[in-house]
Amino acid sequence: MNAASSSPPTPPSAEEILAEAQRRIAERAGTPFPDQPAAPARQPKPPAATEAQARQLRRANHAVFWLSKHWLALFNGLLALFTALAFLAPVLMYLGDTEAGAFIHHLYDPFCHQYAFRSWFLFGPQATYPTDGTLSPSEMLAAGKFLGSAETGFKTALCQRCIAIYGAMTLAGVLYSLLRRRVTWKPLPLWAYIALGIVPMGLDGGYQWLTYIIHWILPGVVLVAHETTPFWRTLTGGLFGALSAALLYPHAQVFFDETYHTLSERYGWQ
Questions:
Q1: Does any domain span residue 167?
Q2: How many domains does the chain have?
Q3: Residue bearing the bigger pLDDT, 170 or 132
Q4: I need a surface site. Which of 25, 129, 191, 228 has the fewest CB within 10 A?
Q5: Is 225 part of a structural domain of the chain?
């Protein structure tokens, strides 16, 4: 009986054996073989914050946390100091320390015109010295530089309106600090702030400046520039200052309360 003959399998060629060996070596080394798609490159992870940066961040957040608790006391203190120094200037001048008094006036120069005829005077026969007529620009400049004398008394470093603004903001801030946890103090509506705070002061001071400008440019149109009174400067300035606090402080309270709770939950601070 003849058995069916079967041909033996064809042995792999030398090239195939070499290619298979290279493939296995590449797999062990983790290197993709040329006939295999390369794996996508891994994106490097961003470096973690260093310990020093973490400490700096914590210190900065702690400063913000402190401010969220004491912002109103800080604001009130700065406003009270700013207003009080305006009165300290004439006191120092009266006591003979003219250099210190003049230095305070110099510090306040960017914040106020300091015209003598629109300022308060201490230690003299009169509290105010209103002008009798329209002053020229050079005369107004000289009035701003005049600090007072033993005969007239000594001028405050802020004018009547500015003292009313900052003084009223300070008093309103103190009142707000006493009542903010007892009653719901909503922000003043913007229309009320404009109608009662900005418009009266704008009319009182704006009309005053308008008549001066027209008189300087067209002296025949306005013979005498309008000068308002210390009463109206104080009233309109006080309204503006108090209503500014009534508008801004409730908004600031909401912001700092949210900041306080966020940082308190994150760090466990009280």
A1: yes
A2: 1
A3: 170
A4: 191
A5: yes
